[in-house]
Design brief:
The complex is a heterodimer.
Chain A (H helix, E strand, L loop, with lengths): L1 E5 L3 H12 L4 E5 L2 H9 L6 E4 L8 H9 L8 E6 L4 H10 L3 E4 L4 H10 L10
Parallel strand pairs in A: 1-2, 1-3, 3-4, 4-5
Chain B lengths: L7 H16 L5 E2 L13 E10 L3 E8 H12 L8 H20 L6 E3 L3 E4 L8 E11 L2 E10 L1
Antiparallel strand pairs in B: 1-6, 2-3, 2-4, 2-5, 3-7, 6-7
Chain lengths: 127, 152
Amino acid sequence: MRALIIDDSRAMRSILRRIVSGLSFETAEAGHGQEALDQMEAGLDPDLCLIDWNMPVMDGYTFVTRVRANPAWRNVTLMMVTTESEQGQIVRALAAGAHEYVIKPFTPDAIVEKLQLLGLVDKGVLA
Amino acid sequence: MTALAPELSDVHAVVEQVWSSFLGDEEPLLPQYDASGPLPADDVWSAAVSIHGGWAGTVTIELSATLAQNLTRLMLAMDDEPLDDADVADAVGELVNMVGGNIKSLMPGPSTLTLPYVAAGRAAHASDTTEVARLDAAWVGEPVRVSVHTTS
């Protein structure tokens, strides 16, 4: 399984990388949505994208809409990981095609639980 | 007119949650730091995010350079490798992003959050803003200040 971590903060990418690497995901990283799209168009084939909302160049919401507009990427699981916690924004992201939503700050277990719900991690696994 | 402001207890709860989630529970964030004066002008990092929309304000974090470097090492899982300023700016910016985003959720919306702006040095605030909440704390003996400003 491969996870693409999309966040403009290197520190946050590092934290998320350690969590999903501990779950046996291979990881790739991008600093904004456009960089992530570029990697996917170049052949990176992630099973999971962890997506910040507020980023320069292309935000996470736009990234979700762009991925969902491409049938070739219909099997990619999209999970928002963001400080954006307004209910309207959460609904908007889920309606656009995000599968799950995690609000920062989070614990590693919160990420694991969401991945278990999505069927990407076996039940009983802890980060 | 009194500016609408987040409760200090809510600001404290947000900061504690961010701190414990990313920096661990072993060293608690202590709110009793004696901050009778300003943080030193040198040897300090600051970062801020602004909120626009249903409520408008700025959330700022100022912390000692030692604390900024220590939390950067924790967030990046680095031991003794040298840190550069970009690493510290990134980590401090992400901290204020999380604190500011959660304070935004306490206030009337809808609203938007800017990307963080980070500086090596104390934060500067526009003359038409008013400080409406301030949390002075210490982590492992190093000072950290979180303040919320609104436009007067």
